[in-house]
Amino acid sequence: MKAFAFSLLTLLSFAGTAAQAQTAPVAAASPAKKGTEMVQFKTSAVCDMCKARLEKSLAYEKGVQAATLDVPSKVLTVTYNPAKTSAEVLRTAVQKTGYDADNVTADARAYDRLPECCKKTTGTH
Ligand SMILES: [Cu+2]
């Protein structure tokens, strides 16, 4: 009987914790605004022209709220509305601008249209 009372108590307190966890605000865990997600791509950008080109190109994508490229690290940070676009779509947008995104290679035609100084062989400058 004692054991039964104990397990009932354990069960009750567990149920109480679970209910509490459910009512806790989910958004508190994420630094981004509600309805906003962030994704980062390692690109093949080499200079400020690449930065301007990529940021402009991503800004025209549906659902994108902000796009920022850090030239030294070549990392493009995009904040977007997940209801309107996805990380996959944005990665493709980077490729179509002529740059690698993570481990996917740039669209060849777009890459050919880049000025010489922006090609991968040039190196960061
Ligand atoms: Cu460039």
From TrEMBL:
Signal peptide start and end residues: 1-21
PROSITE patterns (alphabetical): HMA_2
CDD domains in the record: HMA
Superkingdom in the source lineage: Bacteria
Residue ranges constituting the HMA domain according to the UniProt record: 36-102
Record's keyword terms, sorted: Signal
Protein known as: HMA domain-containing protein
Keyword Signal belongs to the record: yes
